[in-house]
Amino acid sequence: MKRSTLYTLAAVLAVAALFFFMTTARAKVRCRVCMEYRGRTNCAAAVGPTEQAAREGAQSTACGPIASGMDQQIGCSRAPAASVQCQPN
Fold first, then answer.
1. C-alpha span between 78 and 80 (Å, rounded)
2. C or N: which end of the chain has fewer Cβ atoms within 10 Å?
């Protein structure tokens, strides 16, 4: 293998490791939220620095597949969650 290929591979791995560390270092809480909207149900999980941030992220992610269009996305995000489970990460 060429030396330049090894350097490129090492740089890509370093950037990936840095990205992983930066995204998970501030994640203190993990939440799983299940949403019911217009007869459809979906669950999603998210991590965040606070419980509120993790809940909002999970709720937004759960609403994605069950709401079509911006109006339904907003309606789903304002609906109460069917279930919420949060725990320290």
1. 7
2. N
Residues in the chain: 89
CA–CA dist 81, 68 (Å, integer): 18
This prediction's pTM: 0.70
Predicted confidence (pLDDT) per residue in 43-52, tens digit: 999 988 899 9
Q: In the β-sheet with 40-48, what is the strand arrangement from edge to edge?
A: 40-48, 29-37, 83-88
Helix (H) or strand (E) holding 25: none
Q: What is the DSSP string of 13-46?
A: HHHHHHHHHHHHTT--EEEEEEEEETTEEEEEEE
Give the pLDDT score at 57: 94
